[in-house]
Amino acid sequence: xxxxxxxxxxxxxxxxxxxxxxxxxxxxxxxxxxxxxxxxxxxxxxxxxxxxxxxxxxxxxxxxxxxxxxxxxxxxxxxxxxxxxxxxxxxxxxxxxxxxxxxxxxxxxxxxx
Length: 113
What we know:
Layout: E1 12-17, E2 22-27, E3 30-40, E4 43-51, H1 60-75, E5 78-81, H2 84-92
């Protein structure tokens, strides 16, 4: 069996498969990883990331996260990093922290009880 193609961020093709609610990463035409999401107006929750074991450690996961977060930024969407891989990646890349969703109540406590 031959070795899968080596992946680097320049050779990983990442696309949003909106019908499947996931980003797909392909290397040499082969599906190498996916990032499942739930999308609502103004918010994308990334819930699960999976990289084929043959491509682990080759930059596929990072390419998925970077591409999807760049698209979220372009769309003006906040990001909820439910997936531990996304949460960890964002914590190591501060330039993307501004995308993180933070719940802020719009209601003020009126003091009535």
